[in-house]
Predict the 3D structure of the following.
Amino acid sequence: MSHLPLSLWLSITALGSVGVMIPLGLATGAWLGIGYPRRYAFGWLALLGAGCGLVFLSKIAFIGWGVGLRGWDFTGISGHAMVATAVLPVALFVALLPARGAIRASGVAFGIVAGVVVGVSRVVLHAHSVSEVVAGCALGAAVAVAFARLAWRAEPGRIAPAPVAASLAVVAITLHGVPVPTQQWITQIALGLSGHERPFVRARWKAGHHDAPMQRTEIPAPQSTAA
């Protein structure tokens, strides 16, 4: 697959960004709240939040303290892989809820495959290692399957599949390519929590440099002298 054009891989990885997937996940939750018992919307948002929380904690741990698995080149769960593999299957599942079980299952399977392709794009673009993408895809698929099991017997709501699918497609298309500096935000939070001036970086960490970044130091204010 790596022989595909770079522009295509960039487009695929942009689809799986937090700036697209999180609004898509929220829109999916909104449709669940409108057309079905609200426990399904709350369940979906709780599962997605838990998955995002694990990604966040794994990244904070490495950037702030250098916690990772050097033998596996693992510095944190891939956020792109996790959110894409969680949100895309559930968005399709919700759009297909009024359909037969086999069709819903096909939607979930297709969404997971699409999420895995997003994960592959992160490896091709050298943004993540294989272990980080595998972890992200596994976590995202677990979130999606857990929700599908939770809502499998939901009675068809009063929302037809067409408007649900159309609105979710509009969200994905409209936000595709819109940059969101999530890595910058996570780095700032990690440095604030750890007290380090510089983040841990994969290259030095892989080379076995164990020296921690510089600690933040408070510069004393100059003392005024009386005339």
